[in-house]
Amino acid sequence: MRGVGARLYILKPLSWVAFILTSVLALLFLFFQNQSPHQSSLLSLGLQPPLMATSHSRRLGLVLWLHGLGDNGPANVPIKSFFSSIPEFSHTKWLFPSAPSVPVSCNYGAVMPSWFDIYEIPVTAESPKDEEGVVRAVRNVHALIDKEVSVGISPDNIFVCGFSQGGALTLASVLLYPKTLGGGTVFSGWVPFNSSILEKISPEAKRIFSSIYWSFFIKLSCGF
Length: 224
Fold this sequence. Notes:
Order of helices and strands: HHHEEEEHEHEHEH
Distance between the termini: 23 Å
Strand content: 5-15%
Structural class: alpha/beta
Helix content: 25-40%
């Protein structure tokens, strides 16, 4: 057992390094994908594209980061420090909301931060799903997005990212938003709804399928 414990001790920090590196690559992928060909060519030459003659809020990008089960928003704030030296993020606003503390079925009813209920772990395609809770959480995420859009941030400059349960909520939030967002990044997440929800996906939201970047990690080393 000592050998197994040692391997897990090594795997845990390595998994977080992989998570951080993948986060950087995924967000860069999404940001560059939303650059115009002219802007991308300038960036490839090491030049900065000229700022458009629009309001500051229109130039501003938003990253909405959704944490995993039992975690909280403030604990994830250091993630943005890995992007502070990257020019493409110089006009980026970050939001790290926290889930409400509620009883969670898979943890024997223990109260903890959770976006919606999880009935069993591991989560499989056959696992029962708290679709009502997911839809309620999606509405809350959409309210945050709508607030930023109301002050002038363009929806196509808004990127939703999430880890584990937050990744599952990211997928639902991006696909059920009535407008096309800039992109979504799902880390070690899953599909939190049944096929019936697919009917609610708008044509505008379906355009984002090509922008969703998936990254799955070994549950043994990362957990929920």
